[in-house]
Amino acid sequence: MTDIIRSLRLLRKNLGTTTAAVLSLVIGITLNATIFSVVDWLWLRSSPFSEPDQIVRLFASNRDGAMHDFHYSDYEVIREQTSTMEGVAAVEFHGAMFTGRDGTTRMMLVEVTSRNYFDVLGLRPFAGIAYHADDDAQTAAEPGVVISYSLWQREFGGDPEVIGGPIQLTNQSYTLLGVAPRGYSGIRRQGPADIWYPVETWWGPSTSKTTLAGSFNLLGRIAPDTEVEQVQAEVGGLMAHLDIRDEATQTPSEALVLTDAAYQTKTYGGPGALLLALVAVVLLIACANAAGLQLARTLSRQQEMAIRMALGGRRARLIRQLLVEGFLVSAMAVVISLGLSRMVLDALPSLLPPQPVYMDWGFQLDARVVGFTVVLAMISGVLFSLPPALRASRPDMLGVLKGNDLSMGRSGRPVRGLSVLVVGQLALSLVLVSTTALLLRSFLATQSADLGIRRNDVLVSWMAPRVEQERLPAFYADLVEQVEAIPGVRRATMARTVPFYPSEGGAALAVHTTDAPSSTLPPGAKVKFNLVGPKYFDMLGIKLLRGRPITDQDGADAPRVAVINQTLAGRIWPGEDPVGRALRLGSPDADPLLVVGVVEDGKYNYLEEPQEPYLYLPFSQRHWEDVMLLAETDGDPLPLAPQVRGVIRSLSQETLLLPQTTLAGVLRDATYSRRLMALALGVFALLGLVLAVVGLYGVSSHAVKRRSREIGIRMVLGADRRSILRLVLDQGGRLILMGAGLGIPGAVALGLVLRGSLFGVSPIDPLSLIGATVVLGLVTVTAVLLPSRRAAAVEPLNVIRQE
């Protein structure tokens, strides 16, 4: 208690130094607590299943280790024949248009599941009922869905009366069976679901399970006394019997079975560990800052330490006293940090850039985060107070008692410890600033890259028409004609989707050929496709390489045709002209369609995807429930959005229409995670840079103060103010160069770690390294300049008299 009281008095006596140390730690600890909460939600927290350690995830893995999903028919075999799992559930991801009580339509993320989904995961509805594997035929035939607790609160205000009533989803009415458990948002941390459909309800009871797309995630509950390795061996045997192959290479797939925790680590562990490492860098800078302040303060108390040692004080007693002071500083910092962290976490969802879809962020200041913050603060207290305590508890008693200033070396420079701390701060700051520049350049590259499409001047209106199927051709024709009549609209067309629209990889069709002996495309390989109207290629700037595009003549009654991209042409007919050749889609016995054109390759779903085969089919020759109207305009498309919306409403008042966007907006949403990472790292770099500059300023001020007598003597002996200014700046410059020398290799190493997250920029980017070094140099020179100018303004006679 005596140490605490004495430490509080000393901290109060040195209020300025104490405040600076506390604020430095507050920045580092608050940032770490906030990011730990984010990473805890994204990666570390157990999934809200019943007994989550018994849940495994099943994948078909290829030679490259990529994880693929299963066909529904394969899932049914695995579910029926497994003996190592008590149950297996299947999940597929989609989107649905939800119409709320206010009449507004919004896109919701959907999980389409097997009927045993809630049983296998051990989930009980918060209200109402869920669908189950043992539902009777009458219950199973009812088109019912389950919604999330979040959606129930957001759209219905938690009204229990809506349960059992109708809910409007994509032009259809369903029965709202119940509400999922509070806080549950599906099996994915990112892209949380708001609605759950049984697979029969989504696809229709008459749909053959063997024709369902191969995109079902499988989750199983391990049987008692069973190991994961046993499950993997069993699933591998079943997959070999089913002859499950990689669709791209047609090589046999291998079973990959992961516990839910292992899956979360594999999926989110990399980004989570990177975030924690980066904020740890900021905390290290903050600790170095506090250590520098502590060391400077303890050096000024050398006479006190020497006297106490001369009077019989033990070194351990002095170290304990200084450690208590450090822990008190940490305690003050952690109290402030917990309050700030709570405020930041509450405000964080609104501070983030607008999300493409609603995100039910799970950030919270729970016991785990509080415990992490307290432990982190205590570790920080040791980190910043122990080295100065060890240094200050070994004074040269004889020199101090004679009146020598041992806070300076023989050359008059500050003690080495202060310089080491500042060099470390500058090096870490350079790593942060350089990595921020690298990610920013990568993000800017996504905005300027040649993606094979035009980015601007195209309005995108996503709709689900409520029109009888036989009237759809006339509806679309009238819609395009009336939209093209709007002043400012150059042309319009229809399409199923556009590149980079969030469609979970896009729909695919099995492709078969009869006249392609040199084809490298496996028979029946799934190829992604789009339905497009006339003018689509011109509007999006997709270059036609051979043949003709889709035109008005390719109507519903015209011969079936297709346009393919150059990768598909090269895979099926390498070195040959594909125009005039035939393809069969779906099955080898399907009616053939004629290839009439070849267009250049592009990006279709994400930036890093390799060039893949792609099909374009006439919009009028296939029916699709939800479609897009594309309108090319003379300028900014958004001001014309209300007029386009009015045309749609005039033709069909009940047509569901999502908020309109632009092609540039679709691409912006597709690069959301990159923009978010660059923004987050920019905040880290800014805080780290501020802390490093404050530390450098403190060291420079300490040096000027301790060298005031030397400076006074130099000026008496004829040194001018410019030479004094250069003397002090020279010391700061050396620290900057040493910091850069250590920071550049660290920045290069981190760039190599981030290689897979970069687009259009090398992980060893000279421009980012040079730019970061220049920025660091400018701000640190500015930090050194103020104490340097103060040193140059010293009145030498006054200094000598004071000495």
Describe the structure in your own words.
This protein is of the alpha+beta class and 803 residues long. Among the domains are: 1-46 and 284-407, no CATH class; 71-243, no CATH class; 458-670, no CATH class. The protein has 24 helices and 23 strands. The protein has a six-stranded mixed β-barrel with strand order 3-4-9-6-8-7. A six-stranded mixed beta barrel has the order 14-15-20-17-19-18. Strands 12, 13, 21, 22 and 23 form a five-stranded antiparallel β-sheet that branches. A hairpin with a 5-residue loop joins β3 (85-99) and β4 (105-113). α14 crosses α23. The longest helix is centred in the middle third of the chain and has 40 residues, at 260-299. It starts with a helix and ends with a helix. Residues 405-414 have low confidence and may be disordered.
> What proportion of the residues form beta strands (DSSP E)?
15-25%
Tally of helical segments: 24
Number of strands: 23
Measured as a percent range, the helix fraction is 40-55%
- Intertermini distance: 38 Å
Mean pLDDT: 84
Widest sheet: strand ordering: 3-4-9-6-8-7
**Per the principal axes of the C-alpha atoms, what is the gross shape?**
elongated
